């Protein structure tokens, strides 16, 4: 149980860091260049992690890194960048709050993790809590921004579960680095073709990209994928609901506002949803070790999917 709590806290580093990302992107990063914005976020973060864990892909991990990089970094970062620039944070965060339910469905199909009733209840409570905290009924919705946010949520949910399915074979830090580098490299030629020259970056933009790359990407994704190795996908997805909670608390702190009763209720529902998703004692091992020695060895050798 202590190990479960430790990995839950490690995983929570990611959504807390991501909760600051919408604000930084909207306030400091240049608008209108989502492909460059995504590439500048992913590549430095991946290279930083590769410098820490000096290991290159082998065998099937070359194409797996490309697939995961496209889903979890390349397309995802570009779509989040578009959503952050075209949607109110409240609406974008509410759309992303539905991701735990999508992750549960994908994990059921790909890694045979059947969601429990408490996980489903946690997902419903969490999404409802996010909507209660953030939606006011006055936010204008850009159809393109909503589409970008929904696509980001669907693609990343698939990518996270694929990373969990394949991840037991390699070091978590190394595979995270490969994904980020692959995603950034895949984006660069499209950025040049579609957006032309890179956008000029002033001091605040450079600081913003530095924060996004190091904290909200390198550190956050390393923590997130480490959590996926040790916890059920349903638990990780529900921990991700701390993302909009962080965004609300950060906005309240910066604006000097007081949370309303409705926001307090929404916050309580989100935290209740996260608590419902905590793994039971002895249930956290979901990687190759949980398959048994023979099956785990076969999986490492490429004989077991």
Descriptive notes:
- The chain is built from 14 helices and no strands.
- It has 305 residues and is mainly α.
- Helix 3 (34-52) packs antiparallel against helix 9 (172-195).
- The longest helix has 28 residues, at 203-230.
- 51% of the residues are buried.
Notable characteristics:
305 residues, mainly alpha, 14 helices, globular, disordered C terminus
What structural category characterises the helix and strand content?
A: mainly alpha
Terminal-residue CA separation: 29 Å
Question: How many strands, which pairing sense, and closed or not: the largest β-sheet?
Answer: none
* Spans of at least 5 consecutive residues with low confidence: 284-305
Q: List how many beta strands DSSP finds.
A: 0
Helix content: over 70%
Number of helices: 14
Question: What's the helix and strand layout?
Answer:
Layout: H1 2-18, H2 21-28, H3 34-52, H4 61-86, H5 89-96, H6 99-110, H7 117-134, H8 143-167, H9 172-195, H10 203-230, H11 233-239, H12 242-255, H13 261-276, H14 293-300
Helix pairs in contact: 1-10, 1-12, 2-4, 2-10, 3-4, 3-9, 3-10, 4-8, 4-9, 5-7, 5-8, 6-8, 6-11, 7-11, 7-13, 9-10
